[in-house]
Amino acid sequence: MLGLSTLPCELRAMICENLRGDRRTLKALSLACRPFVGLCQAHLFRAVSFHAFPHSDKTLNAICNGFYNLLSTSRDIARHVRHVYIKLHPKDTWYTEDRKFLDILRWLSRLSKLEVDADFDQPFNWELLGEEMGEAFEDIFKRPALRSVKINGIYNLPAMSLVPILRSLLVMVP
Hints:
alpha/beta, 7 helices, 17% strand, 2 domains, five-stranded parallel beta sheet, two-stranded parallel ribbon
């Protein structure tokens, strides 16, 4: 009896494409059938969010640490990440204190869309991210794969480093 692993790559890709909205099934399929791992990961990790959800006991630091540990053990996952959403919140300082987040940003070499949203009562000063974090973001801004950046509620952004490569830039400051 032939299994799923004997299917041609094109059919496996079509199966994963049809399952793209069903994260639970994609995860199960990637765990059950080795030839599907990369195809499933491409859908599971296309978009990554760094923000706490309401009514969740997971802190942003825990989310960041979990994703760091995952990428540390399976670097192939980083190549699938195309969209990152980061929500900065006044109660959280993980993005300025945690070197793990710097490594995560460096590993995401194929990022095409970046959204940073500051959830503060007043606009957030980009310079408060610190020199290392600012440099890590500026490095992302220079990557050829990056095509879209959305910045909300942040000022003192190094906008000139964004201009040469972007097709889309949206900066919103209340």
